[in-house]
Amino acid sequence: MNPFFNGDDTLHNATPIFYNSDNAINIPFVRYLAIRDEETGMWRFQDGGLKVGASNRTEAFFGIRLTIEGTIHHGWLRFTRPDAQPETQFILAGHDWNPVPNAPIQVGRPPEVPVETEILPNGNGIRFTWPTGASHWVLENARSLTPPVVWEPYPFAGGSYADVPPEGSERFFRLRRPE
User: How far apart are CA 112 and CA 33, in angstroms?
Assistant: First the structure.
């Protein structure tokens, strides 16, 4: 089984996870092991015997499953290196995970967190709601989408909802994971 994913593949509950013969999650990342000779100070590379590896890749995506408070969350890790030489190490270049339990995520992209709208009674505006798993995210607003776009935190948001009065509805909104 190939442990790597391509950008825009979707990870979900039925996505296979790569296991080794001991039934442990195994990420076969390099084909060669670097061994340093202590007497000479020279490095040599030994074939690690990897059958499915990253020997010709400069970028590799791995799918992950996280258990958070007893629920499964899907995510991805992106590793890169400047060339495909076996001795060149990969570095972690990006990652993300979906805060919504059991919801899919596209490899290489941020999660799509559903935001629902509801009209408030008596014409008092609208309410945005989003899953509690994203309650620490920031609701931002902008008056225009013409560059340069200026996003500012919406001051009346908290937890997993925000009420927008009618006079504030002529704005654009986005929900963003804090950095």
Answer: 39
